[in-house]
Design goal:
Layout lengths: L4 H16 L37 H4 L14 E4 L2 E4 L17 E5 H7 L4 H6 L37 E5 L23 E7 L4 H4 L6 E7 L5 E11 L6 E12 L4 E12 L22 E4 L12 E4 L2 E3 L7 E2 L7 E3 L5 E3 L21 E3 L16 E14 L4 E15 L8 E8 L7 H9 L4 E6 L9 E21 L2 E21 L4 H8 L1 E3 L5 E3 L2 H5 L15 H7 L6 E21 L4 E19 L1 H4 L33 E21 L3 E14 L3 E13 L5 E12 L3 H4 L4 E9 L2 E9 L8 E13 L7 E18 L2 H9 L3 H4 L2 E2 L7 E4 L1 E21 L8 E17 L8 E2 L11 E11 H4 L1 E10 L2 E2 L5 E2 L13 E2 L3 E2 L2 E11 L4 E8 L29 E9 L1
Parallel strand pairs: 4-6, 32-36, 43-44
Antiparallel strand pairs: 1-2, 3-5, 5-6, 7-8, 7-48, 8-9, 9-17, 10-11, 12-16, 13-20, 14-15, 17-18, 18-21, 19-20, 21-22, 22-25, 23-24, 25-26, 26-27, 27-28, 28-29, 29-30, 30-33, 31-32, 33-34, 34-37, 35-36, 37-38, 38-39, 38-40, 40-41, 41-46, 42-45, 46-47, 47-48
Amino acid sequence: MRTPLQGKLIHLAVAGACCALGAAAHAQAQSTGTAPAGGAQPPGTAAIQDGAAAGPDAAQSAPAGPVPAAPLSAPATATGDTTVVRISGSRIAARGFTQPTPTTSLTAADLEKAAKPNLFNTLAELPALQGSTGRTTSTNSTSSGIQGLSSLSLRGLGTIRTLTLLDGQRVVGANVTGVTDVSQFPQLLVKRVDVVTGGASASYGSDAVGGVVNFITDKKFTGFKANIEGGQTYYDDDKSGTLQAAWGRGFMGDRLHVTVSGEFSKENGIDSPGFGEVGAGGRTWYRNTVFQRRTLAQTTDGLPEYRVIDHAQQYQYAKYGLITNGPLQGTAFGAGGVPYQFQYGSNGVPTRTGAVTNCVNPFCVGGDLSGSVGAGTNLAMNFKRQVAYTRLSWDLDQDNELYVTANYAQVKSNFTPNPGAAKQANLTIQCDNAFLPASIAAACASNRIASFQYGTANAEFPANINVHPVRTQRRFVLGADGKFGLFGKQWSYDAYAEHGENTTVINVHDITLNTRYNNAIDAVRDASGRIVCRNAVAAASGCVPLNIIGDNPVDPAAWAYVAPANGPVQRTRQKQDVASANVNGELLEGWAGPLALAAGAEWRREQYTVRGDAYGAGVSPDSPNNAAYPADPTLNTTVGNNWYAGNYHNGQGAYNVREAYLELNLPLLKSATWGEANLNLADRQTRYSTAGSIGSWKLGATWKTGIDGLRLRGVTSKDVRAPNLSELFAAPVVVNNQVQYQGNAISVQQRTVGNTNLRPEIARNNSFGIVLSQPSWAPGFSASLDYFDIKVKDVISTLSIQQEVDLCAAGNQEICSAMVLNSPGNNYVTVQNFNLASLRVKGVDIEGAYRSNLAPLNLPGRLTLRALATRNLHFITNSGVVGTIPSEGAGVNLGNTPKWKLLATQTWDGLLQDKLSLTLSERWFSDGVYSNEYIECQTGCPVSTLIHPTIYDNRMKGATYLDFGAGYNVTRELSVYFKVDNLTDRDPEPAPQANPSFAINPALYDVVGRTYRAGLRLNF
């Protein structure tokens, strides 16, 4: 029987304090709103807002009735009758300036209420953020390199098109694509996060195509604060412990200020349940969902090509082995290698040709599912983050300071991408194999066969593949900021130099070498009757026979041979150096306000080196790992690629950037009748050492109309994304392949390399919005609606070898220059990235907030209602590949961009003499489809085509998740809280794939289930 909720929460709070030993949590960050003297904000659950948060004492002085809502723009600071707005969507900071680019802000109070171990998870729930990566994504991948990477994506355009900053500064990438890892940020000191949902390249440079996410820290934090939190799921797994602490103090008359913070969090993850259709931790929703696909030729019967089926059985292998062709097809092997008749689903009967009646290749429905591997993927990685941060500043005078910051962060994760190492009817077993039962050897003889095809899940392996990425960041910044007088005006400046390094080490354990595995399973008896490897060269090199015929204990010596302890290794080192200077001020006083200017220049260098092990990358004189891998004549030591997965290769590259920008704000109108209007312009000129020169610009305007509370805003911009290190300098890989060209099959050498001739991607961003901010007829209410349209051309994408050949044949000379096809024996095709594809994203963002005092209803406290929603109208991808058409991704729930995504919160705070707050949140996205290119039909279907396949049912449900939490101020210095995410334990929808692997979509759906967290915060 499960622990009652009350007891569970007590247990979690205690567990958090004990298991963390440094476990990190969302400690109370200093709020930008009003707080009680010496006190903490009332904790609770997620509440998203765009401005300052009111503190717990607000109700005591608030008038009866509505109180001002959180503004739908970033917070402003007011001094007398001047208001200086500092928002991440613009470099301008001037009196009366209202930027045209939509920006949503989350304050420290909002982040605390989410009560999550990682700020990344809170941000990823925002509707505009779609396609972010975290510890529940890529858990089925061995070689992607992004496992355990917490990186943000706006508009579904990918993490590489979202610029993530820390205090307006770039951060060294945690992956060769250049994307940052939010888990490496000093999250405890974050007092606000600005999410700029529009192009910002003119202000911030490359990568800001989808927008900018800027983490803003409390640079002058004073005092001490800490947070302890513990959590676990309803299924008693993914247990977590977190601890954060920060201290800040001024010395020498407060001219020297020191801030130090440390964070540790540990989330244990959700382990693989192993083989079979069994969900992890007792979860019952997994059901081997796949696309069952007929051939195009079969669709002339009026029935659809695709059906979505549950309980799919891949009949090309069984848990401990299955003969998949010939007269013995359907013979499986169990304990001790004893043969038995395999139970096919769908009442299937083997045909001896490899097919099975009543089944559609390669799936039956039902039957023996014990060898299924899909449920064996970890739902969430075991994840640990450690961050140490310090900032020292020295005030030269009242207006100027020098500072230095240092950050050390290490993020470790580990997970199992799949159990065993499935071989899908691609093994050949000789009938004289020494491990075959006598009855099978006799059957071979009676049927006059010398061998048969064989498939197995390799469930007898003593361990599953496990991947261990470790990312370590060291970042140092030396800077200065302050104010100075010029032309009778006060100007501000900031300048900094940064050096950052990120080392990523990926180790893969318990994974096999393909050639050694094949040699080890091909076992015979020698003249003395001893079982040995058939291949004499392999035997002389240490080959130990491996028995995969049935469930037999694996010989440790055989396992050590096929899966050596020094498995695949990738070591990547990235460096970033930046020097930047910016000035900001008012040039002169115009007829409608000050003409303001921001200008700056930046130099940046990015470089990386990656080294793989000798078995994966091939023997390389500059690889530090060669000595760990003894020579083996059976392996390919020239090109590598010997592992079952995780074949990492060597590469390196660097580029530098020089750029300068200018931004102006020109007030156009200031009238009691017509309101106020301003024009915002920016231009940036950039030169890349690899991609050449490119410009970006922005033209925007805002109009605070004469209508009470109504403001209009619009902006158009040209934004860019330069090719990253991976695209320019991808590690080279060479293999032999075959292509079709001019009606003939041609053998070619496939050379996969980077492309240093890539051009920057160019985007055109357009948005128009209407803002209603606290009109007199609706006090306490604010709302905004913004339409956005983003077009990206010259999108960098990778093509298959055959696609490149087809494009060359169609006349693309750039592609033709990457191959030779008319020189037998010397033919090659260079597979690399090209500027061929395009993207277009259109949609609407909606925000609303209402805050009211409940005294008129004779109720205590205050009620705050907030909602954010994004409606994706179009997400069109054009690959540029011959024979394809643009695809529509809006509403495809197998992807990242549902038609609707919403986050709403209702907070009731100020209860029990301003000590208690309650928050309910709803996360929702709409029903969708598997693909907008499918034609749904049940009978009378048209003949299916590659461009428009037919499918029986093209509907994929959305989901609604409810979160609830509460916080209680025990004293002014101590508060306690609890949070329940996914209160109803809503299961994820099946996400069918072409094979029964990881058939869920963690990019949209909650795959963890109901989660409890509880903790306490200290603030002195």
